[in-house]
Structure formats: structure tokens, C-alpha cells
Amino acid sequence: MKVAFATQDLKRVDAHFGWAKNIAIYELDENGHSFIEAVSFDGDLQEDGNEDKLGPKIEAVKDCAILYVAAIGGSGAARVVAQNIHPMKVTQPEAIEDLLDKLQAVLKTNPPPFLRKAMGKGKERVFNFED
Asked: Can you tell me whether residue 69 is helix, strand or coil?
């Protein structure tokens, strides 16, 4: 599954979603993780009430199952959830590598329902009906 991180420095989750200079995207499963890409944003990212800044960020994370942020506004959270992305807030800046390791450990055990659902994002479900 793909996991996104709102980050200013590409090393830690340390950014409000709307104000983030970068979104780092990783692929993760129970066996490991790999960096996919970093999407950078510029302009006046701290302008409150500027909903236009959210569009490109939502587009950047649309294939992700989880989005780690330091904070996210109500409008941003609603738009993220509408894309079936689970936002996760960190209470203080935390290293992306540490978060990936923790998430991977949970995947190896008994992940909670929201995480099992997130793991299936982007995968086709096939139903076989037999007579």
C-alpha cells in the first residue's frame, strides 16, 4: 500500500497538510518499504482559507491509503477521507523511517480493521461465484 507523509524536510512528519512544502510517498507492505517519490509545492502555503492549495495535494496522495500529518484542517480532512485515505496525526515531529517501521510491525501482527481496509486500497476485488 502507498503511504504519504506531510513534511518540510523529507525526513520527518513535521507539517500541517495544507502548509507542507513536500509530500513524501512510500510503498509499504509487511516485508518492507521503498521510497516512490516526493512531490514539492510552492507559493503561499500558509494562507488560511485558501482551499485552492489543497487540490494539488489531494491529487498527489489520491493513490495512498494513509496520510501522516502534524495537523490537518477540517476541510482538508474531509477531502482526504472522501478519497478513502486515512489521515494519521502525529503529536510531535517524528522520523518517517520510524513511522514506516512501526506501521510495518503492525502489518505483521493483527492490523486493526481500518488498516486491513487501507491495505486493500487500489487492489481489485475478484468474486468467484459457482453454481
From this structure: strand
Is the pLDDT assigned to residue 127 strictly greater than 60?
Answer: no
The rounded distance, in Å, linking the Cα atoms of 96 and 128 is 39
Residue 45 has which C-alpha cell?
Answer: 502555503
pTM score of the predicted model:
0.84
Cβ proximity of 119 and 2 under 8 Å: no
Question: Residue 94: which residues within 8 A CB-CB, separation 6 or more?
Answer: 12, 13
pLDDT category at 71 given cuts 50, 70, 90 is very high
User: Which of the four pLDDT bands, split at 50, 70 and 90, describes residue 131?
Assistant: very low
Matching residue, cell 515531529 = 93
Give per-residue burial for 32-55: e unless 16+ CB within 10 Å, then b: ebeebeebeeeeebeeeeeeebbe
